[in-house]
Design brief:
By secondary structure, the protein is of the alpha+beta class. It is built from 27 helices and 19 strands. The two termini are about 85 Å apart.
């Protein structure tokens, strides 16, 4: 019969309930489309990294579904009852091991380990005893990892030297104790390279003999000599080419005069070996390029003189061709020299270390590796005990945070939750570690949640977390705000907001949002008008101050005549015209405004019992669009993109509804039974005066409406 599963609906997704050992044993039968996650990182989550590393068999830093299934199968095969994985515990009972070959091997090793600790009759074993046993085994000569170090050779100094030479040329791989050592693959690579180098050296003795030094001297200057004679042949073809090919020019030499020269610098090394001319031989001493004189002198001494029997320090092209032909086999042998670090160390050192019998040395090293590998079962049982004990303790927790998110939706603390952030009078429990805020925000923004990226510091330590605000308002959440972050270990960190992704937090916040924006607009306009009035007043005061300061000086006659009225009567008439015009304009404006207000008030009163509906309609028209947008985004708010951006592979749409969000971010609340004392510095808002003014406005509006209905007031048109 198929295994009977239980599912729990949470976050809009059916999630499997891991409640028994049978659930773990049959987990491979569950369709992975029903898993909440398919992969997770091994770092950046609140989980024992050593346990994750043991499950991560390919060591790529990620736990995938097949690796988790393999761990479940491996643990169930070594336990008599899979229910032990549900019970958990920090100690592994020997009686819980399966009666199989693997189980009996683990039980025997557990008894040996307990005996070494002086508690041979103990019924169970814990990580302290296993860890101590692993340290002891890692320090043994043969620790079962198939890697030998120089100390593995014991008292054989010659064999130690072979292993050291192999490590120097091939590099090492850490053994169980962390010391670089030689495994079987590197050992074979070393001896193959040594054999190739020795064979090459033997061929050179037959092909080269005493010509090796001459061939090396020819190789050292070959390209430059070929270049020189090619230039000379070109000059023979066209005499005009000689001047152009005799670099450098006078201008280039003048440039060299301003720099610090050395015979090893590129400007000199790139110049021809000697002045170019048709049929010109190459000087091997004086007259040659100073940067190449030493190499040419060596060529003359070890190659030209002994092979061409030519003592004059000149070499023509024909002699150069004969010289190349003499040393060609030796040059070919030199070109075939094996590369790598071993060849660089030299054949003499290799022969001194390996001696005359390389196959025997190979056999000795491989025998050491084989002896080390033979101890693998014993050491493997110790490592398997550690793995089984860790899986017994941690596997159920990992399944409840991977196959399902029971730990998160039951508010038990999911492994991806980094800690708790306190900021702006509230706490946020949905926080995740972030490696790169900019990259994380690209995907996390699809979660439709209000996210604040905080840079946390504790001494010299730094980390970044993304916190989801799911309750309260966002009026005072901005970049630069400081808070306090507590990680899962209870350590406190200074937190500062460095980036914000804005999204609605609640319907209530969306309802008030238009009015808050309107009030902010009024405040901004009032501030602008006040600033403009202040600037105008300062300008007038400055003008008056200037006139007062110059009152003792007589103004120009023309200026006085143009600025002042002709007579006092004219000035009085001008003031009267200004006053009358101003009053008339104010009267018309007030009359129009009152007419509009009376008309609106009349229409509103005529609604009668429909007045509440009208008020609701006005409020809905203002707040409705904002609330609709917020509702749509809150319906889409999910946990998946936040975790996907952190390296998870979330399989379902893990919704963060309003009720769950309210539990993830909590605002400050006074404890029950709190006695609140009045604030002695509270602002005096003057509500009495405000209410009185409002009542007066209502009475005046009612009187104006009555007068208008009775015909006692002029009926100004509304438009």
């Amino acid at each position: 019969m198929a295994h009977a599963w239980q599912f729990q609906r949470a976050g809009g997704v059916d999630q499997v309930v891991i409640a028994s050992g049978a659930d773990i044993a049959h987990l491979h039968e569950l369709d992975q489309k029903l898993w909440v996650a398919l992969a997770c990182p091994t770092r950046g989550i609140d989980f024992d990294p050593r346990t994750l590393d043991l499950i991560d068999t390919d060591h790529d830093g990620r736990i995938r579904a097949p690796e988790l299934l393999a761990a479940c199968r491996w643990a169930c095969e070594r336990l008599a009852d899979p229910q032990q994985l549900i019970r958990g515990g920090d100690r592994l009972a020997l009686a819980s091991l399966a009666d199989t070959e693997e189980g009996r091997g683990l039980a025997d090793e557990a008894r040996r380990t307990l005996q070494r600790h002086g508690v041979a009759d103990a019924p169970d074993i814990g990580l302290p005893e296993i860890t101590e046993r692993q340290k002891h085994l890692a320090g043994e000569r043969f620790n079962g990892d198939g890697i030998v170090i120089p100390a593995s050779a014991g008292d054989d100094a010659a064999l130690q030297a072979v292993i050291e030479l192999a490590l120097g040329s091939q590099g090492g791989v850490p053994d169980a104790g962390g010391t670089p050592g030689l495994d079987e693959a590197r050992a074979h690579a070393f001896f193959d390279a040594a054999q190739a180098l020795l064979d090459w050296h033997a061929r050179g003795e037959a092909d080269c003999g005493p010509l090796r030094a001459a061939a090396q001297a020819v190789d050292a200057v070959h390209d430059k000599v070929e270049d020189y004679f090619a230039r000379c042949r070109l000059a023979s073809y066209d005499p005009r080419a000689a001047e152009a090919l005799n670099a450098p020019t006078v201008e280039e030499l003048r440039k060299l005069a301003t720099v610090r020269l050395s015979l090893a610098t590129d400007p000199l090394l790139q110049m021809p070996l000697a002045p170019v001319a048709a049929g010109q031989p190459l000087p091997l001493g004086e007259g040659a390029n100073p940067a190449w004189q030493a190499a040419l002198a060596t060529l003359h001494e070890v190659a030209v003189q002994p092979l061409l029997q030519q003592h004059q320090a000149l070499l023509d092209e024909a002699g150069w061709q004969r010289l190349k032909a003499r040393v060609a086999p030796c040059r070919a042998w030199l070109a075939a020299r094996p590369g790598g670090a071993l060849a660089a160390s030299g054949v003499d050192k290799l022969q001194a270390v390996l001696g005359d019998d390389l196959p025997a040395r190979r056999q000795q090293v491989l025998a050491l590796i084989a002896e080390d590998q033979a101890a693998a079962p014993l050491h493997g049982h110790v490592n398997d005990l550690e793995k089984l004990l860790r899986l017994q303790r941690d596997l159920r927790v990992l399944l409840r945070n991977f196959v399902s998110f029971a730990a998160f939706y039951k508010r038990e603390g999911a492994i991806f939750q980094a800690g708790r952030l306190y900021l702006d009078g509230r706490s946020c429990d949905l926080t995740v570690n972030v490696a790169d805020a900019a990259k994380h925000a690209v995907i996390a923004g699809l979660a439709k949640a209000y996210l604040a990226y905080c840079e946390c510091t504790r001494g010299t330590e730094k980390m970044t977390v993304a916190a989801a605000f799911t309750a309260g308002d966002v009026d005072f959440l901005f970049v630069g705000r400081n808070g306090l972050f507590y990680d899962r270990q209870g350590r406190d960190w200074d937190a500062r907001i460095v980036k914000v992704i804005e999204n609605p937090i609640s319907i209530g916040q969306a309802f008030l949002s238009p009015y808050k924006k309107f009030l902010r607009m009024i405040e901004e306009q009032v501030a602008k008008r006040a600033a403009a009035s202040d600037a105008t007043a300062e300008g007038r005061l400055g003008g008056w101050a200037g006139r007062i300061a110059t009152a003792d000086k007589s103004p120009p006659v023309g200026a006085v005549a143009s600025a002042a009225p002709a007579t006092p009567a004219d000035a009085a008439a001008a003031r009267a015209r200004i006053d009358v015009g101003t009053v008339a304009a104010l009267g018309v404006a007030l009359g129009s405004i009152s007419a509009v207000l009376v008309g609106v008030f009349t229409k509103f009163v005529d609604l009668g019992w429909w007045i509440p509906v009208a008020v609701a309609g006005i409020v809905l028209s203002i707040s409705g669009p904002s609330m609709l947008i917020a509702w749509l985004k809150l319906r889409q708010r999910s946990l998946g993109p936040i975790l996907d951006a952190s390296g998870w592979a979330i399989n379902g749409r893990m919704r963060l509804n309003v009720r769950l969000g309210a539990s993830l971010s909590q605002t400050a609340q006074l404890p029950r039974g709190t006695l609140r004392r009045p604030d002695p510095f509270a602002e005096r808002h003057g509500w009495g005066w405000a209410l009185g003014a409002l009542a007066l406005v209502a009475v005046l509006a009612a009187a104006a409406w009555g007068a208008w209905r009775l015909g006692w007031a002029p009926r100004w048109p509304l438009f």
